[in-house]
Amino acid sequence: MTTNEIHERLKAKFGDDVGPLSEPKVDAFAVVKAERIVEICRHLKTTPGLDFDYLEDVTAIDWPKRNVIEVVYIAISLQHRHIIKLKVEADRANPTVPSIVGVWKAANWLEREVYDLFGVTFTGHPDLRRIMLPDDWVGHPLRKDYQEAGGWHGISNERENPLVELKRLDDQRRAEHAATHPPAAAPPPAAAPAPAEPPKA
Amino acid sequence: MDKLILRRVDQNSEEMILNFGPQHPSTHGVINFLVQTDGEVIRTAVPDVGYLHRGIEKIGEIVGYPGFMPYTDRVDYVAAMFANEGYAIACERLLKLEVPVRAQYLRAVSCELCRIASHLVSVGTMTMDIGAFTPMLHGIRERETINDLIEELCGARLTYNYHRIGGVAFDMPEGWRDKVLAFLDHFDTFLKEFDRLISFNEVYVKRLANVAVISRDWAIDYGLAGPNLRGSGVDWDIRRDLPYGAYPNFKFEIPVGKGFVGQPGDSFDRYYCKVLEMGESSKIVRQALESMPEGEVIAKVPRKPKPEAGEASGRVESARGEIAYFVVSDGTDKAYRVRARTGSFMAMGICEDASPGLMIADLVALIASLDVVAPEIDR
Q1: Which of B50, B223, B339 sits opposite A133 (nearest CB)?
Q2: CB contact under 8 A, B349 and A59
Q3: What confidence tens digit (pLDDT) does each residue in B288-328 have?
Q4: Predicted TM-score (pTM) of this structure
Q5: The CATH number of A3-123 is which of 3.40.50.300, 3.30.300.10, 3.10.50.30, 3.30.460.80?
């Protein structure tokens, strides 16, 4: 089934809660209402003809300008070999989306990753905690406005540019060289005072 | 994390908590398992990942489109070619580029060689985890030849950076085709030798048959990918079912687990699917080399590509299952968002639910047969 046909079937069942299909920018998607995402996913999985049994991905995109975080769901039907991409928009200040772990178990770890890196809370998730970062990490790195806190438990996340170190070594060697080879450098200073004297006199 | 699991333990029983990893040789990288055991039997094994998280997706937003290619190598360094291809396909779809046919064939050749190399490491280390040392040396020996061949092709042995947006970096060097064909002739006999050496060894089969069975429904529900999915009896391969590149031109079988020595979906099925897949990859490389057309190896691509705003996925069948790169563009010369969905991450997600009831030594068989690579989990 093409994406258009799948979208029409969803539209027929859920009406205006399923938004229009995006103009084909390579991969088309539809934005759906957050409250109904679980229902829609279950419908996708269990309806004969759709049979989306395989959840490929749950991820997110941060859009600070529009003040939303989009949670992206991509599902595949292994039987019919068709793909659907749905999106849910959540408010950036307090992004909350219902969890779809009850529909596909694959969503468990995928939603934990989105929670960890974007700070989206999935209500109804059985085990929502950070997965990549330590439990006491502050902030969500994949947000566009994320600022590094400057280290974690005394481990710095900054280091000097290696070129600075190289330049310092270079300067040091040059100074040592100058110290051990004074005769070459000595004559010009000795000559310099001589012409400086006549104006005084 | 450890407090969390401790809360679940009944303090008055004989149960204990065991830290399996993060520096354990059979966890295949830096992964930690918090194993709650009752004697030798596992009650639950909770994976704790993230030790190798390098923020590769964030790096993708900072470097330009072509600049991210070397980073994709570091996602899965045992099978780096596939990550290259997945990212290249996603970017090509965004840029609406047509890839030259010769480049597609070269991609297929390089990827299938890489698949053989990756599976050799996988089955080799798996036999070592189970307790047989020699097969690993045999596997690594064959992989060495492939590494040499790929080094001649692209100059690198591990992190290839061979594919480019719009094609591949270099054409085949002179005489390379014959070297590959000579290697494949040798390799086909090696596979038979490997089967005689270990695959159907009685002790090995007893350690793996009917151990850590993952049913067909579970495999699909948990989103397993690649040989793990096929080991559970699901006939699904991106190369055939959502074809890309030159793959529609080749004839090859897709090995599916059907209980070769035990029941479908056990550790042996996942292992043996990989052994059979190596033979199929060898077939594909032969066909590709025989029917390779002449022509350019890379399309005309601007130095700083600026795709129109939009989003595209690039799916390829990696050695560890489906790699899907999801690239979002906002019309500038840097990606707005890069996302890599990997097979190892999905495979780790099932460990907590697949482990109860296993013996501790069988947990090693489960992890080895799932063939996880730590940097691919953590990215």
Answers
A1: B50
A2: no
A3: 988 888 888 888 888 888 888 888 888 999 888 888 999 99
A4: 0.84
A5: 3.30.460.80
